[in-house]
Amino acid sequence: MQTQNKILNYFSLLKKRGIIGKSYLFIGDDFSIVKDIAKLINCTNDAEHFCNTCWDCSNIERYAHPDLFMLKPETLTITIENIKQAQQFLRLKSFRAQKKVLVIEDAQNMGEASANAFLKTLEEPPKNSLIAICASRIDSLIPTIVSRCNKIFLPPQENKTEDSRFTQILGFLKGERPVFKDRKDFLSFIWSLNLVLRDAFLFSLGRNNRLLRFSDCEIILENIRIKNVNTYCAAIKDILEIYANGATINENLALNLIRERIL
Hints:
The chain is of the alpha/beta class and 263 residues long. The chain has two domains: 2-153, Rossmann fold (3-Layer(aba) Sandwich); 162-262, no CATH class. It has eleven helices and five strands. A five-stranded parallel beta sheet has the order 2-3-4-1-5, with helices on one face. α2 (32-42) runs antiparallel to α3. The longest helix has 22 residues, at 183-204.
């Protein structure tokens, strides 16, 4: 929930400054926040994020808003016909919303032909529109789709407590091999490790952050070789790529790569 609030705060700031992008790629396994972003963008009341009571919010919540189009494949593949329907929606004049919102669910099932058919729309999106592409795997999308979107990495649904996850990360940084009950648990570990590295870097700069609440935070700092911004950015980039491709990547290969980067 905390991460979702940060994402909503981010889009709220973009809205206030009038700089919301036209296309976003959401990577993760829970995309419920995308509907909230659509409400935030089009809410007509003066609320922190969205009021959930105005006409626009209410109809977006029920997926009944004429300026919201949810593209979800009826079969295992997003077809060219599906893409044509989405393009037709974007060509229509907005009914009343500030931004028309197209949401493409299960975008990892978009074949190369469908993706290429959508590229022109993605390169030149209609004015006052937002395209939200939702995928569980980034490696299943063609590079030109990925490169044309702002990327938002969504956290996995977490079952473990923060303390137990922190203990697992601490063991990894000491050289232990973590054991995961399933692929989802592995992805949750990678996501949490990314947050720990971020906080370790901020701590090294002398800024307040949540690592100060842990008695063993100095052990983490002793084991992480993040000495400068470039090293930090490179390490985080690799970890986010592992997270984005986590459905298929080899766990041992991923963990060894992370060790080489930060230990």
